[in-house]
DNA sequence: ACATATTTTGAATACGTATTCATTATAATT
DNA sequence: AATTATAATGAATACGTATTCAAAATATGT
């Protein structure tokens, strides 16, 4: 591997001069710059970022710890984050959350000396939070948050749950099922709370059997529906707490021969691209911001990384939800 | 930042001993190991991977240069690659191809001293290829390949094009449009060649206006369809060279009020998850392998990275395509 | 008890870069 | 011409780790 030392030798200068040509060319004589650049060209020299990182104590790496891409919500945010980071000179180490062993993921990430972390995979009460704070690496949570601390951007999940539920109530549904992921995450906790609140306020009892807080896989959704359909008081509408789950739900009901929304209404949440497809037409929820969640997050992270720690602003952003009515919800028959 | 030197001081040993406790604990006295581990615990020590990388001349990083995630094909491969790499101790730097300036992406990647590169974003005649070879970093191409060189895994695109086209011909369609991306990529070149061959063999002329080699965005697909529908000889079937494009196509035709497959048949390619959805039912193509393409690629890359360069095997894998007939293709009316 | 093998440890060094500091050469000012 | 400021450069060092080598301590065999 060709180093700045070899370039220096070929150019007949010292290694520091080569370094200066790269970083402060204005501090070095024009002729010398030329000599050095020629030598670089000749040797096909590429600066070693690892050595640079070690010396500078800055890696220009960020870590993205994302929810699984089978949920298209995270597809959009990953693209946004990776591309925006790159535009600002940052490289993105991507990890997907590992229910089993998230802690070791963070342990690994911190060893990489990343300049910042962006994550969607935190629980409301997650021991990782204080580890991250202790590490002093700037981090931003998006989609999910930790209790009420730190930097985050989220949707007002409770309000979203209310919006969805009220929409279904207004269509005449009273037996409404809630299907979502584990409620130790802020997203599902909020969306469930909103559903319960909307029912309560309008004096509609919530049968505990209607609430399916499981995991986000297709298998789990299918099983939840199987169970729901066996109930005496079986629901006529489903509020699925993510579009990904709503799609599994729609698919399964269609396969069983039901018509949507004639037999059942379905409401999702996230407004992922495919929900707008003419063959899908999923009613869903989005937020009122001209920027996607992931963009808010990465912009703020970059701010934090490029400013002294004393001057760092705190971002605690809770966006207003907005209902998008499409074809999967209709009046109760 | 707490270093191995500080741990050494607290433990009352030398820095190399700390290093040995981490990497060869069997080479150090059991009591000493304990002392050192306690000191690590006490100081909350985390080894600095950057320094380790510099010394070892191995980073345990790989770079993934992927096609855009709005094509769900790359969603699956990204997940597979990132997770499989992590299981083997590798961290993944993710980049998305940049039509405009892929070269600078590679330049950046090589500065990061990655141990290997995995990419889908190469052209059949791409100057990057010889740069990569010259860098001596192992790399594997998936989905697309460079002419006929290097390590790659792909589908037999030409055969796939034939399969799709023959399927449509058999249904009675003779005016078949081809919609795909730029033909300087092996994928689209092959899929187009297969389409042309199948038409030729069966003595069906191909009108040049039926072939839309554009780019892979929704906008481009919509425009292509607009143009196709204005033709005198307008096609009755579409072979879209990726599922992503096929979905755009299906969506647009449905929105215009057409029924699929009554008015038009559509065949995609890639067998991405959503195509199996009951509301989508996209006829598509996949390959006959129990492993996804991305997994073949990452497994081989790991092989290359963990073996001396002389013993590296070459992988040039061309998988057999297979047609999956669903609801978007039907007899010509 | 002696010689020899083995285990355990630390001093010194290297990886490739950026930075501090001192030195020399040159330009600007009196 | 003498002084002072400025520009250009290199020697030395540091970042945090792993490794080589030699030395010391201990165990093994006779």
Automatic annotation (TrEMBL), chains A, B:
- Keyword Zinc recorded: no
Q: Which sequence ranges are marked TM in the entry?
A: none
Residue ranges annotated for the HTH cro/C1-type domain, each copy included? 5-46
Gene3D superfamilies of this UniProt entry? 3.40.50.2300, lambda repressor-like DNA-binding domains
One Pfam family matching this protein: Peripla_BP_3
A GO molecular function for this record?
transcription cis-regulatory region binding
Assigned keywords, A-Z: DNA-binding, Transcription, Transcription regulation
Task: Give every HTH lacI-type domain span.
Answer: 2-56
Transcription found in the keyword field: yes
Q: What is the protein named?
A: LacI family transcriptional regulator
Q: Which organism is it from?
A: Geomicrobium halophilum
């Amino acid at each position: 591997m060709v180093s700045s030392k070899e370039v220096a030798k070929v150019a007949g200068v010292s290694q520091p001069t080569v370094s200066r040509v790269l970083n402060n060319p204005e501090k070095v004589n024009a002729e010398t710059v030329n000599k050095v650049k020629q030598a670089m060209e000749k040797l096909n020299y590429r600066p070693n970022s690892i050595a640079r990182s070690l010396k500078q104590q800055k890696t220009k790496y960020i870590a993205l710890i994302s929810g699984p891409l089978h949920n298209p919500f995270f597809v959009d945010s990953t693209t946004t984050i990776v591309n925006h980071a790159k535009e600002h000179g940052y490289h993105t180490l991507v990890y997907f959350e590992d229910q089993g062993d998230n802690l070791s993921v963070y342990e690994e990430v911190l060893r990489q000396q990343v300049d910042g972390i962006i994550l969607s995979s935190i629980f409301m009460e997650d021991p990782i939070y204080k580890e991250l704070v202790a590490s002093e690496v700037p981090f931003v949570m998006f989609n999910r948050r930790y209790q009420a601390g730190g930097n985050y951007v989220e949707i007002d999940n409770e309000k979203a749950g209310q919006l969805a539920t009220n929409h279904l109530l207004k269509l005449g549904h009273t037996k409404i099922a809630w299907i979502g992921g584990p409620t130790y995450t802020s997203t599902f906790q909020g969306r469930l709370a909103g559903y319960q609140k909307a029912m309560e306020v309008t004096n509609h009892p919530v049968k505990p059997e209607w609430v399916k807080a499981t995991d986000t896989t297709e298998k789990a959704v299918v099983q939840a529906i199987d169970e729901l359909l066996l109930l005496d008081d079986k629901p006529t509408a489903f509020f699925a707490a993510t579009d990904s789950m709503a799609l599994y739900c729609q698919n399964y009901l269609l396969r069983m021969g039901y018509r949507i929304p004639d037999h059942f209404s379905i409401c999702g949440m996230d407004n992922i691209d495919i929900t707008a497809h003419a063959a899908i037409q999923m009613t869903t929820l989005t937020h009122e911001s001209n920027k996607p969640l992931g963009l808010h997050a990465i912009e703020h992270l970059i701010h934090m990384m490029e400013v002294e720690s004393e001057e760092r602003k705190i971002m605690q952003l809770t966006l207003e939800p907005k209902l998008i009515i499409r074809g999967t919800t209709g009046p109760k028959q």
